[in-house]
TrEMBL record:
Belongs to the gluconokinase GntK/GntV family. It comes from the Bacteria. Pathway: Carbohydrate acid metabolism. This is Gluconokinase. The lineage of its organism: Bacteria, Pseudomonadati, Pseudomonadota, Alphaproteobacteria, Hyphomonadales. It comes from Hyphomonas pacifica.
Length: 164
């Protein structure tokens, strides 16, 4: 079965770090959702304006095209996947069984992490809108992500293996 393991969460939750480490550890390909945003979307976010689902449509299509074109049985995607629109788009358009892994981090820690980033388009001012938009799928695996990366990875791998 072809699977898409989606490491999801708001800005600052550690999606890219955890997803890329999981992909390396398991020998699976890695997709970074931020690379699929249009320049217009990145500009909009950098200006402090939240995206709408209409803004997200081409982003979802791009990620799905990349996922469905890859021959490997499992792929790891680092993606906020905040809204049901994005989640459904990934489930329906990726050509894969989608497994969501939600990285839970306290708001104060998220703000600290975002503020510490020097070269990212996502400002701290959008954190509240991301938290408001966040809708975690009922079947998502929820992982406390304010711990050491190796502990987070161990929990994810253990849960994925238990499902296999």
């Amino acid at each position: 079965m072809r699977e898409l393991i989606i490491i999801m969460g708001v800005a600052g939750s550690g999606k890219t770090s955890i997803a890329s480490a999981l992909a390396r550890q398991m020998g699976w390909p890695f997709i970074e959702a931020d690379e699929h945003h249009s320049i217009a979307n990145k500009t909009k976010m950098a200006a402090g304006t939240p995206l709408t689902d209409e803004d997200r449509a081409s982003w979802v299509d791009s990620m799905c095209a990349a996922s469905s074109a890859m021959p490997e049985p499992r792929i790891v995607l680092a993606c906020s996947a905040l809204t049901p629109f994005v989640q459904a788009g990934l489930r329906e358009g990726s050509g894969r069984r989608s497994r969501f892994v939600m990285l839970d981090v306290p708001k104060a820690e998220l703000a600290r992490r975002i503020a510490a980033r020097a070269d990212h388009f996502m400002p701290v001012s959008l954190l509240d809108s991301q938290l408001e938009a966040l809708s975690v799928p009922e079947d998502a695996l929820r992982i406390a992500a304010d711990r050491k990366p190796e502990d987070i990875l161990a929990d994810i791998v253990s849960a994925l293996e238990a499902e296999a």
